[in-house]
Structure formats: C-alpha cells, structure tokens
Amino acid sequence: MKATLLRWWDSDVGYSLRTSPMALVAAAVALVCVFCALFAPWVAPYNPFDLATLELSDARLPPAWSEHGSAKYLLGTDDQGRDILSALIYGARISLVVGIASVLLSVVVGVALGLLAGFTGGWIDGLLMRLCDVMLSFPAILVALLIAGVGRALLPNAHESLAFGVLIVSISLTGWVQYARTVRGSTLVERNKEYVQAARVTGVAPLTIMRRHVLPNVMGPVLVLATIQVATAIITEATLSFLGVGAPPTSPSLGTLIRVGNDYLFSGEWWITVFPGLMLVLIALSVNLLGDWLRDALNPRLR
Q: Is-contact 192 250, C-beta < 8 A?
C-alpha cells in the first residue's frame, strides 16, 4: 500500500497535485469534511439528534463569540437547542452519503448503457440515445422532486434506509444520462481501433472486449465528470431537503438545517441558517475545484 501511494505521488497526476496550491487546499478541505462525516460520533461535541440530550432552555443561543453566547456551543444552537456545530457534522455525513451514492449509481447505469450503445450501434444505439434525449428534456430537479415526493407520499412511514434509497434513486434518474452520452462518444472512437479489431479477429466475445479492452480506455472522462457531479448531487439533495421531500426529519441533512434556519433568518437568529449554508458551499466548492484539477491533470495536452 505504501509503495503504491509513493508511486502515485511520483506520477504525473501526483506531481500535478503537488504543484497546484488550489488543488491542495481543496483536497485538504474535502478530506476534513469526509473525515468529520465518517467519524461524526467521535468528532462532534454532542449528538444533536438524541432527544434525551436536548435542552430547550438553550434554544437559539448565538455563537460563542457573541455577547449572549455560550462556550458550550461554539456556533450557537437552533430552535430546539441543538448544537449547530454537531448538527453540521452529522448533516454533512448524510449529504455526502446521498451525493456519493447517487453518483455511483449514475456511473454504473450510465457507463453500462453508454458502452452498450457505442459498441453495438444500430437500433440499440438509436433507442438508448432517444431515451437520453427524453430524460434531458425534463429538468433534473423537477424529476427528482417528483420521484422523491411520490415516494414519500406512497411510503409515509417507511424506514429511514428506504427513504434514503428513494432519494438516491430520484437523483440518479437523470444523472446517468451525461455518463451514457460521454461513454458512447468515447466508445465510438475506441471500437474502430486496432486492438479492438485484433480482439474480434481472435474470437474474443463482444462482452469481454467491452469489459476488458474498451471500458478502461473510456473511464478517464467519466472520473472527471463523476468528481464534478458529486457536488451537483449534494446540492440537489440539499434542495430536495429544503423543499421538504429529501432526508427524513429524524435525520436532517444540510438542506433540512437550512430550511429550519430560514424561518428565523429575519428575526435575528442568522447563525441557524448561515452556517449550514456555508458548510454546503464549502463542500461543493472543494469538490468542484478537485474536479477541475483532475480534468486538467488527466488531459495530456496540458502536461
């Protein structure tokens, strides 16, 4: 493992990361957010969703550096007395899990369909591309809102895991289209190259050619697109939660925290919604910057 990391650090991509201050800062911020999200029970000062530990007398306390703030709550509390800092850590974990899971599902579906369309061609290619055109004609947030809303309406008492599954599927329903079109375009180029023709002549099965030969050569753009789409998926999840059809109320994400704080924004309790909003912007910005760096690092023309 150590030798592999050292080899990657000395590669062209590793050198690009070392010489890009913006990418290093973005990677550090993203790693801190992921670390806090993964180890939230140990990193967070409190468990903000444990009803037994909430104190309504501490509700709507300002940040610790304010005049009426408390040293117990660094970023203040919300309307139920929950520690804002702890809520951000737990909320970021939910947003990251939903965002990454929805992108992984979109990648699996989009890459498989794009590879099939580009390699086989014919009516299969035409049918899948028309399906992509239909999906692109609908706004992604509208489709996600419809699916998540219908899922919540049909299964109002569903377990949290099922509710998160509906949310992930609703975000992935339109996300796979970009991967399918990207992989199809790359596959159309790769399928006519000599190594693919040689594999066909030697009798290798088409499925094996797609999996062993074509797929590794079309994954570069997919990795870049997936990195950027993680931020989009997180923002989509936050939007759905803000509208009330996202994460369950018992496990609020950053979007839910922003929606709760929005009711108190004009009454002076700005910290309830400002800090979750800043956390969402920080995560999305760091992931987008990493995606931009990865796009440049994997482009041989910019080396």
A: no
Residue 119 contacts by C-beta under 8 Å, 6 or more apart in sequence? 187, 191, 206, 209, 210, 214
pLDDT (tens digit, 0 to 9) for every residue of the chain, 303 residues total?
556 656 656 676 676 777 788 888 888 888 888 888 888 888 888 888 777 777 777 788 888 888 877 888 888 888 888 888 888 988 888 888 888 999 999 999 999 999 999 888 888 888 999 998 888 887 777 877 777 777 667 766 666 667 778 788 888 888 899 999 999 988 888 888 888 888 888 888 888 888 888 888 888 888 888 888 888 888 888 888 888 777 776 677 888 888 888 888 777 788 888 899 999 999 988 988 888 888 777 765 555
Helix (H, G, I), strand (E, B) or coil at 14: helix
Measuring CA to CA, which residue among 178, 102, 107 is closest to residue 136? 178
What span, in angstroms and rounded, lies between the C-alpha atoms of 241 and 144? 11
CB distance 27 to 17 below 8 Å: yes
Is the torsion defined by CA of 19, 21, 22, 26 positive or negative? positive
DSSP 77: B
Distance CA(295)–CA(184), nearest Å, equals 19
Task: Give which of 195, 196, 228, 215 is closest to 110, Cα–Cα.
Answer: 215
User: Could you give all domains of the chain from N- to C-terminal order, each with its CATH number?
Assistant: 81-302 (1.10.3720.10)
The residues, any chain, with a CB within 8 Å of residue 259's CB and separated by 6 or more, are 241, 242, 243, 244
Q: Residue 83: what are its φ and ψ, rounded to 5°? A: -65, 125
Q: Identify the CA nearest to 86 among candidates 133, 125, 118, 53.
A: 53
